[in-house]
Sequence to fold (182 residues):
Amino acid sequence: MKRYFYILILFLPLFAFAQGPGTPLKLPDTLKPQQIDPLRPTRAAFYSAILPGLGQAYNKKYWKIPLVYGAIGTGFFLHQRNNNEYHKFRTAYKQRLAGQPDQFLGQYNDQTLINAQRTFQRNRDLSLLVTVGLYVLNIIDANVDAHLKQYNVNETLTVIPEIFPSEISNAQNIGLTLQYQF
Fold:
């Protein structure tokens, strides 16, 4: 039985088929040159500045649009909520100073009303600042994404993995070679 196994291993390469000598291997060209539009990033940023999320739609990154509206909408919601609370405590403090009964019916003292006003005013201003920051981030994202879509990848820049022997110990080393051709 062992002998048949050795014979099979010995003659198996004779039955293997390979590509014939007349048919060269042709790989499809994956690096097709693209026409670069230098105004594309500017246009995407402009669209995003006009209407948040429109630059992401222009870049065909539709999954980012709900994130943009969720972030900016949350900022507006927090600003409105803190603004309403600020005005509620401010009105109560003004009514108390005028000698009128306020909506809290003496539940809070004057210093608590002043502290609540300051807290809600600070939170209101901070939420507005964060909302403006998210709006600017939306514009920057559309611009950068449009730039990266036009990133030039061609055959002049290659990264090649290599295995080479060490001159000292004759052990195999693994490395990367980065080549740029002018």
Summary: Residues 37-152 form one domain. The longest strand covers residues 157-165. The chain has a mean pLDDT of 83.
